[in-house]
Specification:
This protein is α+β, with helices and mostly antiparallel strands. About 45% of the residues lie in helices and about 20% in strands. The protein folds into five domains: about 100 residues, 3-Layer(aba) Sandwich (GIY-YIG endonuclease), CATH 3.40.1440.10; about 130 residues, no CATH class; about 130 residues, Nucleotidyltransferase, domain 5, CATH 3.30.420; about 150 residues, UvrC, RNAse H endonuclease domain (Nucleotidyltransferase, domain 5, 2-Layer Sandwich); about 55 residues, Orthogonal Bundle (DNA polymerase, domain 1), CATH 1.10.150. β8 and β9 form a beta hairpin.
Length: about 625
């Protein structure tokens, strides 16, 4: 009975958490078209839909009454995601792709396994146009895909009026009605030169590949010519054809006809934060997106390119093509087929990364400036802007609640007040470059000027307890020595062991009695429990409470700060090792070189004469330049 009672309480708690998540997300939905993905308690996508206005459509599921099917769907929803598009047509195609990818249980429409329709020019002596859903290697020319059969048929109907290819499956004995309508060249009755077919196929191909303007200009000329001759019926036909072109030839950028696997990147920055969005296109179809936000400290595009490099070092599954936004220095660059041509003499981080991606990953990397590829990059950028805006609006809402959360947390811990919280996290990879970091939250808000970084000095290898002891000792020896105001609460990353190590140093070595609590993570590396005291016990803080969410924010922030510091130290070690490997360069000269030139890149670009002010001879200078040159080319 107790077990059943516990399960019911746990289910109710999870439901409350889900409702809070959904409530927060509903407040942040954009006034744009797109697709939404409903998820159940296990994170499984159970429904995919499209909307002209995402905010209105998604909110409607959680307001008002519904039919039986929708009620069942809503009762299972525990979370949702959305993808912004720039038109309803894009949303339709994306919805189709997502349904075919995930097969959501509640979707009925678009759930069949039909492929997208294409327009095909057959490879025959007398070619014709067809609408087909199968692409086979028969030397035919395929164009599309189109969002549905109607769009493909309408386009074919338009082309049938513009270009008189044969319409029949087998040649008849005499001319048919299409010949008299001017829509068939009648190879059944007349000899047709191959050059005539070649001309029409070339014009059709140009039309379907986006060259509608050329055809429209020609139709405009013919319409005006017919009007001058008072052939008004003929002029009306040309006018109707112009209208038909505009109606059926809306470009699609959610699906590409070459069926390539692509990763498409876009990013946005604001208030020192960056959001990177990756759109995954598989077999030419956009099926998924992934977004991440993080603080950045350098030039926006350089840090973005660094992210791309790190992403592929951690994700070995590679597409055939990677699309990136154009960096600022290449916005006015020369283009070929809409793709920026990188100036190999320009010294930019973007050039370096693209060159390394080409050589290292053997993947084609493009920075499109116009055309369909540019449009999907813009779509990724738009999604990044929406996600970043959503983050800041969430932060604003959170900060309003943070003061009250800090006050309530004191009650849960049995303390008078908790205004200043100091939180610690350790970071190392296989024991290399071990560091620790401390962040400070005052009244529930980050106080960044109070943040501190620590290089671990006395601990060998990845010993988290001893690292915690060293850092706590160094921090609070200074608090005692400089008579600084102690925090109301210390938060450590971990459970009983970390709490015990911190309290031992504070009480037995320094004579300080500051409350210490630990944040324990679950298997998914998310904050799961709050522990405090010695021996440490779990504080039954509700996971859907603002107090718990405040602790999550603190743990995420100190972890981010520690990881950033660790990466800086690891990168610095790699730089130093490059110089240390050069004969004749010791620690003193290494520091002198870096201080004088500022970076490895500047040293590599220097001439022999530039080393003379440092009392480095021409021979050693040449060796340094050569060694660094080999390092970068290897």
């Amino acid at each position: 009975m107790d077990h059943q009672h516990t399960d019911r309480e746990q289910a109710e708690q999870q439901l409350a958490e889900a409702k809070e998540t959904i409530r927060n997300k509903l407040a942040l939905l954009p006034d744009q078209s797109g697709c939404y993905l409903m998820k159940n308690s296990e994170g499984v996508i159970i429904y995919v839909g499209k909307a002209k206005v995402l905010k209105n459509r998604v909110r409607s599921y959680f307001n008002g009454s519904h039919n039986g099917k929708t009620q069942r769907l809503v009762s299972e929803i525990r979370d949702f995601e959305f993808i912004v598009t720039s038109s309803n047509m894009e949303a339709l195609i994306l919805e189709c792709n997502l349904i075919k990818q995930y097969h959501p249980r509640y979707n009925v429409l678009l759930k069949d396994d039909k492929t997208f329709p294409y327009i095909k020019i057959t490879n025959e002596k007398h070619p014709k146009l067809e609408v087909t859903r199968r692409i086979i290697k028969d030397k035919g020319k395929y164009f599309g895909p189109y969002p549905n059969a109607y769009a493909a048929q309408q386009t074919k109907k338009l082309l049938d009026r513009l270009y008189p290819l044969r319409k029949c499956k087998t040649l008849p004995d005499k001319v048919c009605l299409y010949y008299h309508l001017g829509q068939c060249i009648a190879p059944c009755e007349f000899d047709v030169q191959q050059t005539e077919y070649d001309r029409m196929i070339q014009e059709i191909s140009k039309f379907l590949n986006g060259g509608q303007d050329v055809v429209k200009n020609e139709l405009q000329r013919k319409m005006e010519e017919a009007a001058e001759k008072l052939e008004f019926e003929r002029a009306k036909e040309f006018r109707d054809q112009l209208i038909a072109i505009d109606a059926v030839m809306e470009k699609q950028k959610i699906t590409m006809s070459d069926a390539l696997d692509r990763d498409i990147f876009g990013f946005a920055v604001d208030k020192g934060w960056m959001c990177v969005q990756i759109l995954y296109m598989r077999q030419g179809k956009l099926i998924e997106r992934h977004g991440t936000t993080f603080p950045y400290y350098g030039e926006a595009y350089d840090d973005f390119m660094t992210f791309v490099t790190q992403y592929y070092s951690d994700n070995p599954a590679l597409p055939k093509q990677i699309l990136l936004p154009v960096p600022p220095e290449l916005e006015a660059a020369e283009t070929v087929d809409g793709v920026a041509i990188v100036d190999e003499t320009a010294s930019t981080h973007a050039d370096d990364v693209i060159a390394s991606l080409h050589s290292w990953l053997k993947v084609k990397v493009l920075m499109p400036q116009r055309g369909r590829k540019s449009e999907v990059v813009t779509m990724a950028i738009d999604n990044a802007k929406v996600m970043l805006d959503e983050k800041f609006r969430l932060i604003e809402r959170d900060e309003e609640r943070s003061v009250k959360a800090a006050e309530s947390l004191a009650g849960w811990l049995g303390l008078g007040e908790v205004r200043r919280i100091e939180a610690f996290d350790n970071s190392n990879i296989q024991g290399t470059n071990p560091v620790s970091a401390m962040v400070v939250f005052t009244d529930g808000k980050p106080d960044r000027k109070e943040y501190r970084k620590y290089k671990v000095k006395t601990v060998q290898g990845p010993d988290d307890y001893e690292t915690m002891r060293e850092v706590i000792r160094r921090r609070y020896e200074r608090v005692v020595k400089e008579d600084l105001a102690p925090p109301d609460l210390i938060v450590v990353d971990g459970g009983k062991g970390q709490i015990s190590a911190a309290l031992d140093v504070l009480e037995n070595e320094l004579g300080l009695y500051i409350p210490v609590c630990g944040l324990v993570k679950d298997a998914k590396h998310k904050t799961a429990q709050l522990m405090t005291g010695d021996p440490a016990e779990i504080v039954p803080l509700p996971r859907d409470s603002q107090e718990f969410y405040l602790l999550q924010r603190i743990q995420d922030e100190v972890h981010r700060f520690a990881i950033t510091f660790h990466r800086e130290q690891r990168a610095k070690s790699m730089v130093e090792s490059k110089l240390d490997s050069i004969p004749g360069i010791g620690e003193k000269r290494r520091k002198l070189l870096l201080k004088h030139f500022g970076s490895i890149k500047k040293i590599k670009e220097a001439s022999v004469e530039d080393f003379r002010p440092l009392s480095i001879g021409d021979k050693l200078a040449a060796q340094i330049i050569a060694a660094l040159g080999e390092e970068s080319s290897s």
